[in-house]
Every structure is written in structure tokens, then in C-alpha cells.
């Protein structure tokens, strides 16, 4: 099916980002700080993912707090 819109599975992109961060040792982050936000932004740019909303950033942070 051809459409004029490209559909992206955002959950899949966020899970890929979480996996990369976890493999790089970014886990057990206790506070959502500016440093963490900048770190995630860098990985988002490297993985060619659209910028995260504040809710998506919080989702990523919460997934990195809890054990895998």
C-alpha cells in the first residue's frame, strides 16, 4: 500500500534508543537532569530519531531506572 505519509513506529524507535543507552551503561539514573537530557539528545541525533517530547524523554528515563 502506497501512501503519501511515512509511518514511523515511535515505540520501536524509543525501545531502540533505550537499548542503545542501556548497552552504553546509561542506567540507574536517579534524577532527570539537564545533563541526562543532553546525553539522550546526542544519541537521538546519532540514531536519526526525531526529537523527543518531554513525555517521551520521561518514558525513556523511567525505563532506564527500572531493571531490565
For the structure shown, list the relevant keywords:
68 residues; mainly alpha; globular; 57% helix
Number of helices: 3
Total beta strands: 0
Topology pattern, helix = H, strand = E: HHH
Which residue ranges are poorly predicted, with pLDDT under 50 across at least 5 consecutive positions? none
Strand content: under 5%
Taking the alpha carbons of the first and last residues, their distance comes to: 36 Å
Structurally, how many domains make up the residues? 1
Please explain how this structure is put together.
- This protein has one domain (11-65).
- It has 68 residues and is mainly alpha-helical.
- It is globular and about 40 Å long.
- It has three helices and no strands.
- Helix 1 (10-23) crosses helix 3.
Element layout with pairings:
Layout: H1 10-23, H2 34-46, H3 54-65
Helix pairs in contact: 1-3
Task: Describe what is shown at a glance.
The protein is mostly helical and 68 residues long.
Amino acid at each position: 500500500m502506497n501512501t503519501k505519509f511515512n509511518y514511523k513506529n515511535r515505540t520501536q524507535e524509543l525501545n531502540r534508543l533505550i537499548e542503545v543507552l542501556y548497552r552504553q551503561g546509561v542506567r540507574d539514573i536517579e534524577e532527570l537532569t539537564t545533563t541526562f537530557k543532553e546525553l539522550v539528545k546526542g544519541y537521538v541525533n546519532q540514531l536519526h530519531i526525531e526529537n523527543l517530547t518531554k513525555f517521551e524523554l520521561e518514558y525513556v528515563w523511567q525505563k532506564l531506572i527500572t531493571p531490565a
